[in-house]
Amino acid sequence: MKLVLNLLVNGFAVFVADYFLPGVKVDSFLIAILVSVGLGVVNTFIKPIVLLMTLPFNIVTLGLFTFVINGLMVILVSAFISGFAVENFGWAMLFSIVLWAVNFVFNSLTK
């Protein structure tokens, strides 16, 4: 049950990011759910490897390079899911920040 709720919250967060960011386009709520699933898969399997490979950059930048990696993960997902488009890298980074903020608010309300 918690997985389904988390999936719906992430889909809503993707939809909110689409509303507030003009550089992000999501066609429907179903596409937003698919984007949240895609981001979950990418963040589970690919992101840890990329974080490990870029560990020196993360240490030097005190973790700020993680925003760059998050933007790259969003661009990767947008390449595979039709109906979800991000104009450029800056919008992808802003998208990941909005996604984090909405998830933070919902997770703090559910606890």
Automatic annotation (TrEMBL):
Keywords: Membrane, Transmembrane, Transmembrane helix. Pfam families: Phage_holin_4_2. The chain crosses the membrane at residues 29-46, 58-83, 89-109. This is Phage holin family protein. It comes from Candidatus Roizmanbacteria bacterium RIFCSPLOWO2_01_FULL_37_16.
